[in-house]
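Budget justification, computational time. The allocation requested in the original proposal was used primarily to generate structure tokens for proteins on the priority list. As evidence of use, we reproduce two of the resulting records. The first is shown immediately below.
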Amino acid sequence: MNISVIKEIKTHEYRVGLTPADVKAYTVHGHKVFIEKDAGREAGFPDEKYAAAGGTVVADKQKLFDDADMIIKVKEPQAVEYPMFHEGQILYTYLHLAAEKELTEALLKGKVKSVAYETIEDHDSLPCLVPMSEIAGRLSVQEGAKYLEKQFGGRGILLAGVPGVRRGRIAIIGGGVVGTNAAKIAVGIGADVTILDVNARRLAYLDDIFGSGITTLYSTEANIESALKESDLVIGAVLIPGARAPQLVKREHLKTMKEGAVIVDVAVDQGGCVETIKATTHDNPVYNLDGVVHYGVANMPGAVALTSTLALTGTTLRYGLYLADNGLETAARNSYPIATGVNTYEGKITCKGVSEAFNSDYTPVRDLL
């Protein structure tokens, strides 16, 4: 199979879909790998290393698309790339289609076989989403702490506090991978941390591992409202696999929050769990609405490209190799994880969460094979 690794063009996205070591793994399996020129340079992998691993460096992006049986990326394709795909091509990347109607329509029109990292399920886990969720969760506290500084419009709060001064308060909405990793950093710097979740078992688990270092609350509307009023930093960490995130923080809640409080919504790439969030970039990451600073960067891990690339490709490689070795049809028939990753196939939506987001028809992928 011909594999093309495309250079990311999303604003300040420095990650790359394969490392040179991954390229060698594909070539050992008998595949040809083509790398767009400078695709990995910003992540610490120059073209020379890809060539030494058996890859071919190509400068012409359109040719990379034209010749590829499978495209490997990190983030969703951008609008200028939509016309480059051809029918029957496999796209293997993060997609978050429930928040990307135009991209979804383009993939359906092009009859692209799209496999989304974020919906691959394996043993009740989302293995290709976990490493980026871990990084985004840890970054959320780091970024939130920065934008609480006065020059960015924040309250002027030091989350760790100092002797004689109250510590900053953080509310984390969602106790999954993102929320847990946010809590690790928040507790580590000494903030006053509250985690809200709808799952009693998850709250019990978090109470076990963090003990008196955090407060756990059931995620009810009343508890969310109370936490918002008290908090300096609010982290949205809600995930429904493949579907749009529920909007738990409403516009009317903002007027109850402290002037200069910060919201970091890690769920923004799935539409966000904050009604007033909109996707931002690393160039212009925050905006102020009703006195509350909103941070909505949709590719947070791109800022730490080397760490993120190594963490991501460590999990995506084995599924990508299985796709390349067997083709999508055989892979999806024989592998539950691959089948759950297929979001569009032959012009049909094959991910239930995406179909529900757009009120469109849903067809299980195995009905099409």
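The second record produced under the same allocation is shown here.
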Amino acid sequence: MNGSPLQVIGSLEEVPSAPDALTVFLAGGMRNCPDWRQSAIEALADQWRRVGTDRPVTVFSPSRVVSACAFSHELVRWEHDALRASDVVLFWFPQGNEKAPEQPIALYELGVAAATYKPIAVGTEPGYVRRDDVGAQLRLIRPDLSVRRDLSSTVADVVRALRHTEKSLVEAYSTAGSLQSV
């Protein structure tokens, strides 16, 4: 992976099925807000490298450029498939601008993911206009989940969820190996 523990897959690129890789989807603001995804990728690479594991991580990172070009059923399908294939979903809601600060598609995706057992990490900039709504809704369906106020803390939650998933995989493989030897 060119010295990086991460492989980044952008919009409309093939969603790989690498059984040993852990996967993260970067969900959140796309339009009318800063491009935060590269910062998230860099923080994830740094934090993942510091935990000292060599397990690869695939990051699904929707592209602002592709998304801004035009709506397409292929793009919606890609995001749907990548979200479903992900072990963990990072939701980040930047403050945005006055024109359209809500980020309704990301809010919809958060609602769908929160209603599953999939691990999610959620953060908003303090000035995000729907921050209180995000927190209130998540307290009802995921009361143990903290809504972070900065991207680094949100990424740290992703790393913890990945480590938990990694440990579960190791246990499952060792149990499967024990069962085969019986």
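A brief technical remark on that second record: The chain has one domain: 6-180.
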